[in-house]
Amino acid sequence: METGDPGHGRRPWHERLGRHRTTAALIAGAAGLAVLGALFVLLPGVVVDHDLAGASVDPKDRLSAVNSVRTTLLQVVGGLVVLFGAYATWRQLRVSQEGLRATQEGYVTDRFTRAVDQLGSDKLDVRIGGLHALWRIAEQSARDREAIISIQAAYLRTHLPWPPTGPEPPAPINDVAPLETRAADAQVALTALGVLCQHRENSWVNVSATDLRRADCDGLWLPEVNLDRACMEAAGLYHANLTQASLVSVNLRHADMKTAIVRRARCVLADLRGARLVETDLRDADFTEADLREANLRKADARSTVFRRADLRLADLRGTDLSTADLAEARLTGALASEHTRWPTGFDHSAAGVIDTEDPGPEPSPLLQPPAMSGQKPPLRSLA
């Protein structure tokens, strides 16, 4: 038995395999050359002779015809080569794109996982960083947007439940700091939710029973969002979109909802005492049994709005369009109206206790007013 180099017995086999491959390559090359030779040397003459069908022609003309066939064959072969090259390039591009897409998805998944892990941190800045990371991922990845919207909503429900879980009763609204101060991470989640909801596919987001007192929702899109039983007292909702939102039993006392869109929203049993609804779109909304005492509805569009058994005592209705509103059993004692207020046909507003007064004129610009969420709110003066 031979000893020494452990690869001594295998080396001849590799050498023979290399020789076989070389021989096969040479044979394939020779076969290819033979095919090309037959294609460009023999085939053109056969084609020309076949077309002549035995007719006698001048050798020069025959050679010219043969060269024409060769040129045509060369063009065909060249075209096939170009097509094959284009196909090979396309396939390589597809493979590269699929590989890049897989890499990107893996990268997004890693970012998503890290961002979600950050939400469980006990450090505020880490949680805010995770929320911003999720927001950015949702803007870049449409397939993750719905999941991230659900995470933002769940974050609000779990971190800001209403009523609060502590033993102490909720503080008066004048003693409550703005949401961005007392819970900056929740304000980030709420803002992200209101931005991402502009392009969501699902039709329902649950943010019910949350503590959103003095939240900044100005300009946010919250259509078809479930805010039932949420506390949004003194929240800023200037020009917010609440189309078809569910606001059942929501607390919107002293909220600034000027020029907001509340079309077809369900505001049954909502508390809007002292709320500012100036120039707000309330068409087709349902305020059945809602409390709107001292609310400012100047120049609001309330056509086809339901105010059945709603409390509108001391409300400011100057310039409000109530021409097709449902005011059945609504309480209007002390409400203010002007010549520009439009009432349903046959409705006697004087008998309902409405006070006619002068129109207040144009509303001041909201840019000149202090933000609703940072101003000191006076106590309610509504009738008992």
Q: Characterize the main sheet.
A: 2 strands, parallel
Low-confidence stretches: 370-378
Strand content: under 5%
The arrangement of helices and strands along the chain is HHHHHHEEEE
Outline type: elongated
Total number of beta strands: 4
How are the strands ordered across the major sheet?
Answer: 1-2
Query: What is the number of helical segments per DSSP (H or I, 4+ residues)?
Result: 6
Keywords, please?
384 residues; mainly alpha; two-stranded parallel sheet; two-stranded parallel ribbon; 6 helices; elongated
Structural notes for this entry:
By secondary structure, the protein is an all-alpha fold. The protein has six helices and four strands; from the N terminus they run H-H-H-H-H-H-E-E-E-E. The chain has helices at 11-52, 59-118, 124-140, 142-159, 179-182, 184-196, and strands at 205-206, 225-226, 336-337, 355-356. Residues 370-378 have low confidence and may be disordered.
What is the topology?
Blueprint: H1 11-52, H2 59-118, H3 124-140, H4 142-159, H5 179-182, H6 184-196, E1 205-206, E2 225-226, E3 336-337, E4 355-356
Parallel strand pairs: 1-2, 3-4
Helix pairs in contact: 1-2, 2-3, 3-4, 3-6, 4-6
